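User: I'm putting together a small comparison set for a docking exercise, and I want a reference complex before I start. The sequence is below, and the ligand is adenosine-5'-diphosphate. Could you produce the 3D structure with the ligand included, as structure tokens?
Assistant: Of course. I'll restate your input first, then give the structure tokens for the complex.
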Amino acid sequence: MMFSIVTANTEQTEELGKIIGTLLEPGDLLCLFGDLGAGKTHLSYGIAQGLEVREQYITSPTFTFVNEYEGRIPFYHIDLYRLKDPSELEGIGFEEYVESDGATVIEWAERAEEELPSAFLSIYLSHLSENSREVGFLAEGERYEKLLENLRDRIKGIYIEAI
Ligand code: ADP
Ligand code: MG
């Protein structure tokens, strides 16, 4: 299944993340795609809130590649922006995070394309204007089809579906 919605401002993107976070289960993997400033980190911040992460400041793990948080389930926030070569993934324990029982979100997931498992939820963020973003979802695998169905139900009437 795939569909797209529009968020009109930063808060709406965070709120969307929050709703996604409430739906996540142990082992879930979300891959985020989109240019710098598209809203990946703000969406991740919302997801952390939905996972009941209490730590106050969630920033992109720019220097460490991975930030780990304790929430309703463990939350692993990976940002591969500064990855120079896929061979570096082994050193950060990439596979362990992806296969863990936490919820894992990967910014710049395309930089690990070869190392991704077959099933995950893809989220594509793109600029529509200064303050609006299109957020597209694509589910691969049974679990993510179900997750996306639940998400679509939850956000019906809250967000405008893009065509
Ligand atoms: P990325 O992680 O994709 O590089 P960030 O989440 O760090 O992007 O930054 C997104 C920037 O765009 C922030 O400055 C945010 O305030 C701004 N912004 C404006 N409108 C939106 C929106 N609808 N959704 C998300 N961010 C938005
Ligand atoms: Mg970011």
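The longest strand covers residues 120-127. The pocket of magnesium ion (ligand 2) is lined by residues 40-41, 60, 79, 107 (CB under 6 Å).
User: Thanks, that's exactly what I needed.
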